[in-house]
User: Which sequence fits this backbone?
């Protein structure tokens, strides 16, 4: 009888001391929600002034270049959607011939200004009282691109977008395509880990890694009933965040750094030297 009363008192104390739910929350979900809010603010303050092709090229084109040779084409970027791939050589964007990175950037900036002028005209021509639809951070704008492959010139239509648009898509893939694995047993110890597949890292970031990249891990020591553990350590490298919980949320300590879901900076190698993005 005494033990039963003691158990009920202990349970009541836990409920009133900060452990107000019967199930533990997941720090990964907290970080992901915060990342979404940060992304909305980032997009709102986007200073974009040029379109983005979604390709990696050499910084130094060499003497007398005849086009821009692609070192990597980012998955789901504008160029990838148009069918371009590594090794292709871009020779024309819209109505402009391009031989250097600088010329390509000038064209992409000019097309962005054309898009802005088109939007101003659209707003000016609105019927009085008609509401305009706000532009998104990655407004669609198509351009013809001519590129060379295997000695032949090919024309394709590229659905241009902003760099911010691509980075947002890449962030979604990192957060949404991470793999979840769990090992261990309730009552003893549980280990959970989220990883980004190395193939995804190559496709979306253009960097080779030997192993899948860990973006979050969670270790529970002696997980008990009602979602309570003696000790829990959660680490979310994709936001340089950690949280330590001792028994319940009243004894919880956390810290958070920069969110790097868009770039995986610090978690994967830097892009190869002598390259740049367009």
Assistant:
């Amino acid at each position: 009888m005494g033990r039963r009363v003691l158990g009920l008192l202990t349970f009541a104390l836990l409920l009133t001391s900060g452990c107000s739910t019967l199930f533990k929350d997941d720090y990964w979900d907290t970080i992901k929600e915060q990342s979404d809010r940060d992304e909305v603010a980032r997009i709102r303050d986007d200073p974009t002034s040029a379109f983005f092709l979604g390709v990696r090229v050499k910084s130094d084109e060499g003497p007398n270049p005849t086009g821009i040779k692609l070192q990597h084409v980012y998955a789901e970027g504008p160029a990838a959607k148009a069918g371009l791939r590594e090794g292709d050589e871009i020779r024309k964007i819209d109505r402009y011939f391009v031989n250097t990175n600088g010329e390509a950037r000038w064209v992409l900036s000019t097309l962005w200004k054309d898009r802005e002028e088109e939007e101003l005209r659209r707003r000016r021509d609105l019927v009085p009282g008609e509401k305009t639809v706000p532009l998104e951070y990655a407004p669609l704008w198509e351009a013809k691109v001519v590129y060379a492959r295997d000695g032949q010139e090919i024309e394709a239509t590229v659905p241009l977008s902003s760099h911010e648009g691509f980075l947002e898509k890449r962030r979604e893939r990192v957060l949404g395509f991470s793999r979840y694995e769990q090992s261990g047993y309730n009552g003893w110890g549980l280990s959970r880990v989220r990883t980004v597949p190395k193939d995804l890292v190559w496709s979306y970031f253009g960097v080779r890694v030997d192993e899948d990249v860990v973006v979050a891990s969670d270790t529970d020591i002696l997980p008990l009933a009602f979602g309570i553990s003696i000790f829990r350590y959660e680490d979310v490298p994709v936001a340089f965040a950690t949280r330590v919980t001792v028994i319940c949320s009243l004894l919880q300590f956390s810290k958070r750094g920069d969110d790097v879901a868009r770039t995986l900076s610090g978690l994967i190698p830097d892009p190869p030297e002598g390259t740049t993005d367009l």
Q: What stands out?
A: Helices lie at 2-16, 27-44, 78-81, 101-124, 163-176, 198-205.
